[in-house]
Amino acid sequence: MMLKRLWLWSFPLLFLPNLGVGIATAQGGLELSDFLIWSYLGLLVVATPVRRGLNVSRITPLLGMFVLWATASTLTIPLRYPYISNPLEVYGPFGLGNEQVTFGLLKIAKLCLYGVAGILTARALKDAEARAAFDWSLLGGGVVTGLSLFVLGSGERTNEASQGLTYSATNGTSAMVAILLVYLSARYLTGSGSRHWRQTAPFGFVIMAAGFALSNGRGGWIAALAGLCYIAVRLGFRRQLVVYGTLALVVVAALYQTQPDFKDQVDMTVFAPASTSGYQGTRNVGSLDDGGRFENWSHESRQFVHEPLLGTGFYHRGGLSGLWSTGSHNFFLQMFLETGVIGGTLVFAVVVSMWRQAGRLAAAEPYEDLALKAALVAAIVAGFGGEYFYGGVILFALFAVYAPTGSTARPASRTKDMVEHPGGWLAPPSPPPSAIARSRNV
Q1: Which residues face 24 on adjacent strands?
Q2: C-alpha dist (Å) from residue 401 to 138, 192, 272, 358, 409
Q3: What does the pLDDT profile of the chain (442 residues) look like in tens digits?
């Protein structure tokens, strides 16, 4: 029995900083999580029972079709782009010696690795007891990341980062913390989780927020703000939210006055002068777009018409692809560019399926959908600001917050779901969180 629960304890370890284990390769960096994920998968295989008819089964075929389509698009790169006169002769079958093809296939393999880990995590949550324990695992993962950011700092010094000697607190890591923090905050505010978890969670939130604020990850900040605004709209501006919001503003003001790095990041985002705003020195939309996101999106979206069906190939950029080597800084746009209309549509279908599954749970229990939907809002906003979900622990964090919903049994049919819950997916207004808390004898 203990062995089957060991994966819950090992879950937070995936969020550890590199601790010198990271390796820079020609195909990208290998991080500590890329080594630990294998043991985590082994523990999941031991813990996962054979279960059918789960919500996660709805997204598994979509993910599988995306992988197949992205692979086909990537393998045909040498045939569609004349790098040489006879690509099959030089590169071998399917052009596997081509650097672009190899890089793309490795990215697809990494996506599969962390995607399978997320799917098996959902399947391992076989009962309410396991889901309650998983709340602690998620909190542990967020705390580990927050402590790492707080203690080691943003440390994006090139030489050290390339050797894996520092924890690279990029926007991607910040986006991951945003997803976890928003999800766990929604769980806490709706009275979910055990009594001991709710008593402990605020201390974890302080650690996560401290590291989060000092991460220099402005993309994650905006994503978290979007997710928290969604929570506020759903719950209404009740006293509890006003108190926490006021405390958050006080903390942000204190950080702005006492932390030069934090102040610089805020100034760069909100008060940047025209001379420093904009991509490559050009001013864009006010001073809010000093990273040139709108310019990137405008330039890259025009490339879609050249390869609308197959796309350019997974992670195929620069050169004859017509895409900027730095990417569009928009994950969803990038999926349409690299895998065509079919691949991009499949990615959106996965997100929509997650959202709708959460909505069905709300028909049975009020606010059961709030945590996942708020996390999805944060993830979507983060995705529109950067390309964070190719694989790795950031993608895994998104699957992890979906896992409790994915582990539940899916309705037999839409008709049955509508009969059992009159009002269907448009459930009637939910009672306030305080009512939920009282019903659980808190």
Answers
A1: 29
A2: 8, 14, 35, 11, 17
A3: 566 789 999 999 998 876 545 565 555 667 778 888 999 999 998 888 777 788 999 999 999 999 999 999 998 888 888 764 444 444 444 444 567 788 888 899 999 999 999 999 999 998 888 999 999 999 999 999 888 877 665 444 433 444 433 444 467 788 889 999 999 999 998 888 899 999 999 999 988 888 887 777 777 888 888 999 899 888 887 776 677 677 767 766 766 666 666 666 666 655 555 544 444 444 343 444 455 677 778 878 888 888 889 899 888 887 778 888 878 888 999 999 999 999 999 999 999 999 999 988 876 677 888 999 999 999 999 998 888 888 888 899 999 999 999 998 877 654 444 333 433 333 444 444 444 444 443 3
The secondary structure of 350-393 as a DSSP string is HHHHHHHHHHHHHHHSTTTTHHHHHHHHHHHHHHTT----SSSH
Joined tokens for residue 51: 């279960």
- ∠ CA(174), CA(180), CA(185), 5° rounding? 120
Query: Where do the domains of the chain lie?
Result: 2-439
